[in-house]
Amino acid sequence: MELGVTKSMLAGGVLVLPVLAFITSFVFWPGALLKAYNWYWRRRLGLVVRYSHSGSYRFCYSSRGTPGGATPSMLLLHGFSATKDMWLPVVKHIPRNQHVVCVDMPGHEGTSRTCAEDYSIQGQVGRIHQFVQSIGLDKRPFHLVGTSMGGNVAGVYAACYPAHLSSVSLLCPAGLVYPTDSEFIIRLREMEKSQEEEEAIPLIPTTPQELENMLRLCCHTSLNLPRQVMRGLLDNRIPNNDFYREVFMEIVGEKSRHSLQENLPLITAPLQVIWGKEDQVLDVSGAAVLQAALPGCQVELLDNCGHSVALERPRKVANLIMDFLSAQEVTGEDAKKHS
After folding, report:
1. Has 164 been annotated as catalytic?
2. How far apart are CA 64 and CA 69, in angstroms?
3. Do β-strands 100-103 and 74-77 pair in parallel, antiparallel, or remain unpaired?
4. What is the pLDDT of residue 84?
5. Annotated catalytic residue 279
């Protein structure tokens, strides 16, 4: 009888301890719990975190599958102050046999943090090219995807290294001259006029309220995240805020602000543009700029969607990219038949 009770207590303890650990983590270390959740999600999706080097410089990336399949390999470049894990909702809807690579951009998460020179758009393009070479992605043409800052980098990369690419998808890319100012650009102009060095940058929150404002700026659909999740997000961001400010000043500086616009005439790879119609960070009028400069590009405008298209409409984005890849393969096959 006593043995049975003891076994029941032990069994109950085994079940209770993980629950207590989860609750304790959620209450006291929400940031660590969010990182653990991303680790779990990567495992479920079959993504493996790896490292590559170019000299002493280290790149951190996650990947799934192997190159050489029916469609080209896919490299995804995240936006400002995000990480490779921002692509998890999209990768969830990409076929398992598609080779995907998500890299931490220069200085972000697990990739080396060096100096301002690496954070300009041209500097980031150079580092991404080193990454491509370091993992052998340049052995055959690949598909490049970039969003926001990553879209600026992806577009300039396409202009600089056309032979390496089969096609490109730009999601709400930065780096253009937009016919209509967005809410964010209006605020940016006001900041420039005030010339106050410590002016709060809307994309670099330091308080829960500023984080809430940033999410409202980036997402058309309210996320309604629990308070502890918001705290975890903020806890993970705040230690990097000085770095984010350094990157931000580089990408909005004269050298980088219109990098994509300046390089549009050099882009020759088939181009897909995806943009949320309600984007308050980079106005959707940028899509018309791309279409005017590159009439052959395919433009997809998403209803009821803001700047964070990969977060708000991940299934739609994944399907659009895969359909575009398939269409390029058909076009390529037809071209071979008629040559």
Report:
1. no
2. 12
3. parallel
4. 98
5. yes
